[in-house]
Design brief:
Layout (H helix, E strand, L loop, with lengths): L2 H16 L6 E7 L3 H13 L4 E7 L1 H10 L2 H5 L3 H13 L2 E6 L11 H22 L5 E5 L3 H7 L5 H15 L6 H21 L2 E7 L5 E5 L11 E2 L6 E2 L8 E3 L6 E6 L4 E3 L2 E11 L2 E9 L1 H8 L8 E6 L5 H4 L7 H4 L5 E5 L9 H12 L7 E5 L6 E6 L4 E6 L2 E2 L2
Parallel strand pairs: 1-2, 1-3, 3-4
Antiparallel strand pairs: 5-6, 5-17, 6-10, 7-8, 9-14, 10-12, 11-12, 12-13, 14-15, 15-16, 17-18, 18-19
Helix pairs in contact: 1-2, 5-6, 7-8
Length: 408
């Protein structure tokens, strides 16, 4: 891919996605394979006036070795320097850029029972620090090609051509046009219009049905609101785009209000493993049964990560007309696949999906029904047969989706 195009992409995700301000610190998490693109992002941060840019280099190959050879106790514990780094993030609130390029099968064959137990213990520690930062800093998740990921999507191509093909699709779906920022501002405006309409309905619950077998009702809090596009950080008020790409209007349902069964329509890449052709049944808001053709044991372990892992934390509406769905590519990557079609998420909900959450605070949002968990895992449920009806607080039934697309 031409460097000028990659520079435009780096400018979009750093300047518009993160919206780095003068004298801010920035933390970038990226695979070592993407060294050259990371340098473009680092330099862009400094051009915008960043005080310091720190890069955390990631490697699935290294993760695999560590998971195989370290004891469960060692994997589960935070070292003092790791705790210090979490505290630094709480104190400095650096902007966070995560560049995702993981191999969907990158940890296949690793003892996921061991990994799950370690993540469960580490997650409880990390959550205390994440809660202190929640909503207070700018962050952005974007994607760059990895060789193994590109090979997964385009097995008929050689490595170089597969990477180029993946770059083309990432940039297209991320609206890297002649003027990416103008494209995103218009897209952001449209998402906000959709959310405004949904919020005007006074929705009490959503009823999902599809020919795949989904028949699920999800209830909302009294003050649940839909959000989409950019957000503003608490305190600073700085506007940023959390996900590039993003096609969703999303909200957090009320913990404990979900009844029925839902069928996933895409594989879920979770911790370097693919969970395929799965379903989950809910009673009284909690997943009570599940099935999968592949990696059911990983799905079951995920649902047991903590008390909130078996409950829903997000309902997201994405039309099948989204650019990602229209690309015809199954990315095996949640950032893209969740923006191709409607999805739900197990685990943590979002405080900012509660009206006036800034004044209410975290404990009040929890009391109103925002789900708490150490995980937040999106899975896709949209299809050409998905219908969604909103049941309003005054008893009306309002069509929201018909045959996988907006009904209004």
């Amino acid at each position: 891919m031409e460097k000028s195009v990659l520079q435009k992409y780096a400018s979009l995700i750093v300047g518009y996605g993160l919206n780095v301000q003068k004298d801010q610190d920035v933390l970038i998490q990226a695979n070592i394979e993407n060294h050259d693109f990371v340098l473009l992002c680092v330099e862009e941060c400094y051009r915008l006036g960043a005080r310091k840019v720190v890069v955390d280099w990631l490697s699935q190959d290294l993760d695999r070795i560590n998971y195989n050879y370290r004891s469960l106790e060692t994997l589960s514990n935070y070292e003092e320097y790791e705790i210090a780094k979490l505290q630094w993030r709480v104190d400095k609130l650096p902007c966070l850029l995560w560049l995702d390029s993981d191999d969907p099968d990158g940890l296949s064959g690793v003892d996921m029972e061991k990994v799950g137990n370690a993540l469960q213990k580490r997650g409880k520690v990390a959550k205390t620090y994440r809660d202190q930062m929640d909503g207070k800093y700018q962050w952005c998740i974007a994607a760059v090609p990895g060789k193994a990921w590109a090979r997964k999507l385009f097995p008929e191509l050689n490595d170089e051509d597969a990477i180029e093909k993946l770059w083309e699709n990432i940039l297209s779906c991320s609206r890297v046009t002649d003027d990416p920022v103008a494209s995103w501002r218009e897209h952001d405006r449209i998402l906000k219009e959709k959310c405004d309409y949904l919020n005007s309905l006074g929705i009490d619950s959503l009823h999902y049905t599809s020919k795949e077998g989904t028949d699920l009702t999800v209830g909302f809090m009294d003050d649940s609101i839909f959000m989409g596009g950019g957000e503003s950080a608490l305190g600073s008020g700085i506007y940023f785009q959390p996900n590039i790409p993003s096609e969703e209007c999303f909200t957090s349902p009320k913990s404990g209000r979900a009844e029925g069964i839902v069928y996933a329509t895409m594989p879920l890449s979770y911790q370097g493993n693919l969970i395929e052709n799965f379903w989950i049944r809910f009673e009284n808001g909690k997943a009570v049964d599940c099935g999968a053709e592949k990696n059911k044991e990983i799905l079951s372990k995920m649902l047991e990560m903590d008390e909130g892992a078996s409950k829903l934390g997000e309902c997201a509406l994405v039309p099948n007309k989204s650019p990602i769905r229209q690309s015809g590519i199954l990315f095996f990557n949640t950032l893209f696949d969740e923006n191709a079609t409607c999805h739900l998420a197990l685990g943590a909900g979002f405080d900012n999906c509660v009206r006036c959450y800034e004044e209410k605070g975290k404990e009040k949002c929890k009391e109103e029904g925002v789900n708490e968990s150490i995980i937040h895992v999106d899975f896709m449920i949209g299809s050409d047969t998905l219908d969604i009806d909103a049941i309003t607080k005054d008893g009306r039934v309002v069509p929201v989706f018909r045959n996988g697309d907006w009904a209004f």
